[in-house]
Design a protein that fits this description.
Elements (H helix, E strand, L loop, with lengths): L10 H10 L6 E6 L5 H11 L6 E6 L23 H14 L3 E6 L6 H12 L5 E6 L6 H8 L5 E3 L5 H12 L5 H11 L3 H13 L3 E4 L2 E4 L7 H11 L4 H13 L2 E2 H7 L2 H9 L3 E3 L3 E4 L2 H10 L2 H12 L8 H9 L7 H13 L3 H12 L4 H13 L3 H14 L3 H18 L3 H13 L4 H14 L3 H12 L6 H18 L2 H10 L13 H15 L2 H15 L5 H17 L2 H15 L6 H15 L3 H13 L9 H14 L3 H18 L2 H13 L6 H6 L7 H14 L3 H14 L2 H17 L3 H18 L4 H7 L6 H11 L4 H8 L3 H15 L8 H4 L3
Parallel strand pairs: 1-4, 1-5, 2-3, 3-4
Antiparallel strand pairs: 6-7, 8-10, 9-10
Helix pairs in contact: 1-2, 3-4, 6-7, 7-8, 10-12, 10-13, 10-14, 11-12, 14-15, 15-16, 16-17, 16-18, 17-18, 18-19, 18-20, 19-20, 20-21, 21-22, 22-23, 22-24, 23-24, 24-25, 24-26, 25-26, 26-27, 26-28, 27-28, 28-29, 28-30, 29-30, 30-31, 30-32, 31-32, 32-33, 32-34, 33-34, 34-36, 36-37, 37-38, 38-39, ...
């Protein structure tokens, strides 16, 4: 069944048109380019105005009917041929006999002269409301033009949907969110035309190429133009003379194409005609198709041999020096002889742009001759695309046949990274690194990769002792720089060394005006975001994340997904949960079923964001995966995994267990030598309700680590001391630091302290602050729930009552909280008595349990 197609983004226009055609009104002209929904808007407005009575006369302008007097009214008016004045008079008489009515004229720019005069007379004499549509950019009869120029009718110009409007429309049709890449591709291809968008999306849905994964709609492959859409586009393109067809096809295969190139390969006259017909557009330097879908139609229509020949003709005109990619891609798909050296240069350039699918394709073509350098690049691209087994096969073959020590060292280093990150085989990664070291070549690269493996093994002190010297040495290339900077960023993040964190960003190429040029730069960026999150300077991490996201937003493959994860992490660090969920859910929809190692990072961050937003049902399957195990290369992140479990337990109502998870995360961090993570863990325990002195006692020696450590200590002391005023002050401090979730929890705890002390005015003030912060962050934490629904219960009574309201038995509650069943029964009895509830089912409403 076809999905309903609403007029999203046209609601205001619909109201204006409906008002303009009510009885007594003059009418309106709706103008716009083809496909923007003029006719649909007119029909919707007519349907909306139908309740006001009267009939509709629907005249249609067309090229065929334009040859005949009153051709637009054919079949609507019975007027015999005659003199012009007599014919027009009879037409007006017949219209008068049908009053009241609304005269609707579609495609008025195609009206014949007699029909145009009739329409003008109806408007001028105010005989009936007139609703006119016409296409902009097309010549219209002067008498039609005078309708708005002489102010007889107002004119409403419809523009194509912008990207945001298009995304809203797609989501509304699909009934759920759509990932940004798919929405952007649809908008780019259709240029905001609702008509084209409707046909393209319908075709892709029917073909199963547009599907939902993890609640996000995604476009999973290249489009295929449906026959219906192809027919529409072919009518727009029209018949093409041979020379004009060559212009269109060359641009369709190779856009943008230089105007000089097109003129030389075809002719200036053919190019000018293509531009005049609105099929191509130029800025005087390069030519592009006037609409992207024209290219889809022409590429589908032309034969393989013709396409290969035309690509080759364009390729020969391109200079590969400034950018080898355009010529390489055209050559690869043409009838020209292969150029392995060009393909290799282009593969390396594509890698620097993070376009891994293109890099792999070009490197594969370059490696077809057996060139070892090309095979190394090909193996790296395959590894970064999570095709680890294929990459390992290439690496092993090179190792078995190559003799050059430098080459062998680099291949073994690529093997090390592939075995560790892509294939999750750390023991074999150590063996590969040892083999690289045994060559005696590439000592800096070997030392840099050794730091990575030590980091994975949890040897933070060893990395800290070695990394400054390497960081400040003369690093041979970007890969070495990224490896060293990533290790430095990681240890700087978890130990709270902010100077080292900043220095490593510069060495790794992640600065205000640069982003790293190799894929491991996303790992560097995530550690940078983590470092600023743990330090209490999350806005700086968000700045870095925005640059990485911008550099990868429009690319296929894992780069875009990794950019989304880093962006989601930065949003989570600032407490912008809705923004975090938007990025992380989209990334997870693609990463969940993939072999890419960044899915482990995405899973932890998404589970945390969902739990903090009070969505335990969404977090539960992710948390189950976290509890089952982690990627061996991500050992440093284990405290984050445990904190995700803490927030997940809290979202399900297990606050005691949640505090236990947070304390366990603190112990993990302390044992690993990660004091900055320990700060976050104790801060989390306080946010979840830990009233003991343990958090403050553990945080005191860590207070010098940075703004977060200082605020966390003040928060812990204020909560343990039940100091409501101090808690409200720390809430404002958290907000200034950029942690909105912590700010909301501190304000909520201030409200609870004041309420228990009987200071109702202060409690209401603090609760209002908490509510505003929750609105900004999108959080629904246990502390915020208590502040929103203050009840005369102890923390233990509330926890047990909430678990009972969720349907758990007394036995289950007792077992998980390590209490006796009798103790649970006692707490439930007292909670019910205080709330005036005698049945378990009645607990849900006062507690706000859904």
């Amino acid at each position: 069944m076809e999905r309903p197609w609403p007029l999203t983004g046209r609601d205001e226009e619909l109201r204006r048109v409906a008002a303009a055609i009510r009885p007594g009104a003059a009418g309106v002209i709706v103008a716009g380019p083809a496909g923007v929904g003029k006719t649909r808007l007119a029909r919707e407005a007519l349907a909306a105005a139908a309740g006001h009575g009267g009939s509709v006369v629907f005249a249609q302008g067309s090229t065929a009917a334009r040859q005949f007097p009153l051709g637009a009214f054919a079949g609507l008016l019975d007027v015999p041929p005659g003199e012009a004045a007599e014919t027009i008079g009879r037409a007006l008489d017949q219209i008068t006999r049908q009053l009241p009515l609304v005269l609707t004229v579609d495609d008025a720019h195609l009206l014949d002269e007699h029909s145009a005069i009739v329409v003008h007379r109806v408007v001028a004499r105010r005989m009936a409301p007139v609703l006119i549509t016409l296409r902009t950019g097309e010549p219209a009869p002067d008498i039609v033009t005078s309708l708005w120029k002489d102010e007889h009718l107002p004119r409403l110009d419809l523009a194509p949907l912008d990207a945001e409007e298009s995304t809203r429309l797609i989501a509304r049709v699909l009934g759920g969110p759509v990932d940004t890449d798919s929405a952007h591709r649809l908008w780019t291809m259709t240029q905001g035309s609702p008509l084209f968008l409707r046909h393209l999306l319908a075709g892709e849905l029917s073909a199963g190429r547009f599907t939902a994964a993890s609640g996000i709609w995604r476009w999973s492959s290249e489009p295929a133009i449906s026959p219906e859409l192809a027919g529409l586009l072919e009518r727009e393109i029209g018949d093409l003379a041979t020379g004009v067809r060559d212009v269109i096809d060359l641009v369709a295969l190779a856009e943008p194409v230089a105007v000089a190139t097109l003129s030389a390969l075809t002719s200036a006259a053919d190019l000018e005609e293509a531009e005049e017909r609105g099929l191509v557009r130029t800025d005087g330097v390069v030519a592009r198709l006037a609409h992207p879908l024209y290219g889809e139609v022409r590429r589908a229509a032309m034969g393989t041999l013709r396409a290969r020949r035309l690509r080759g003709r364009v390729a020969l005109t391109l200079d590969p020096e400034p950018d080898p990619i355009p010529r390489a891609v055209l050559t690869l798909d043409s009838d020209l002889p292969p150029e392995p050296a060009l393909f290799l240069r282009a593969a390396e350039a594509a890698t620097r742009m993070y376009d891994l699918p293109l890099a792999e394709r070009l490197a594969r073509a370059a490696a077809a001759t057996g060139d070892i350098a090309a095979r190394v690049v090909h193996g790296a691209a395959l590894s970064w695309l999570s095709r680890g087994e294929e990459a390992e096969a290439i690496h092993e073959d090179i190792v078995a046949t190559a003799s050059d020590p430098g080459l062998l060292a680099m291949v073994q280093l690529h093997r090390t990274g592939n075995l560790l990150f892509t294939m999750a085989r750390p023991d074999e990664a150590h063996q590969a690194l040892a083999a690289a070291e045994a060559t005696g070549a590439a000592p800096v690269h070997v030392a840099a990769m050794a730091l990575v493996l030590r980091l994975v093994d949890g040897e933070i002190s060893a990395v800290l002792a070695r990394v400054p010297q390497l960081l400040r040495s003369d690093l041979p290339d970007d890969l070495a720089g990224i490896l060293v900077a990533t290790s430095a960023s990681a240890v700087a993040a978890v130990t709270g060394d902010r100077e080292l964190l900043d220095e490593s960003a510069v060495v790794g190429g992640l600065t205000a005006d640069r982003v790293p040029t190799v894929i491991p730069g996303f790992g560097l960026a995530d550690f940078q975001v983590l470092g600023h999150r743990l330090a209490g300077t999350p806005e700086r991490g968000a700045d870095l994340a925005r640059r990485m996201r911008a550099a990868s937003a429009d690319l296929p493959g894992p780069a875009r997904l990794m950019g989304l994860v880093v962006a989601g992490h930065a949003a989570l660090a600032e407490g912008h949960l809705l923004d975090a969920l938007l990025s992380l859910r989209e990334a997870w929809a693609a990463l969940e079923g993939s072999g890419h190692e960044f899915r482990f990072r995405c899973r932890t961050l998404l589970a945390t964001a969902l739990a903090q937003a009070g969505r335990p049902e969404g977090a539960a399957p992710l948390l189950a995966g976290i509890a089952a195990g982690h990627h061996p290369a991500y050992r440093l992140y284990l405290p984050d995994d445990r904190l995700a479990l803490a927030w997940g337990a809290a979202a399900e109502g297990w606050t005691t267990e949640a505090i236990g998870h947070a304390a366990a995360a603190a112990d993990l961090a302390r044992e690993a030598g990660s004091p900055a993570y320990e700060v976050l863990a104790w801060q989390t325990a306080v946010q979840l309700g830990d009233t003991t002195v343990a958090p403050a006692r553990r945080l005191a020696p860590l207070a010098g680590l940075g703004p977060r450590a200082e605020a966390a200590l003040v928060h812990a002391r204020a909560w343990a001391d039940e100091d409501g005023d101090a808690l409200l002050r720390v809430a404002h401090a958290w907000a200034r630091l950029g942690d909105l979730v912590a700010a909301g929890d501190a304000a909520a705890q201030a409200a609870e302290v004041h309420r228990r002390a009987g200071r109702q005015g202060s409690a209401l003030t603090a609760a209002a602050v908490a509510a505003k912060l929750a609105e900004r962050s999108g959080a629904r934490t246990p502390a915020l729930v208590v502040a929103a629904r203050p009840l005369p219960l102890t923390a233990r009574e509330r926890e047990i009552a909430a678990l009972a309201a969720r349907g758990l038995s007394n036995k289950d509650i007792a077992a998980r909280l390590t209490l006796s069943v009798r103790t649970v029964e006692g707490h439930l009895y007292r909670a019910g008595h205080k709330l005036g509830v005698s049945e378990r089912a009645g607990l849900a409403d006062p507690l706000g349990v859904e």
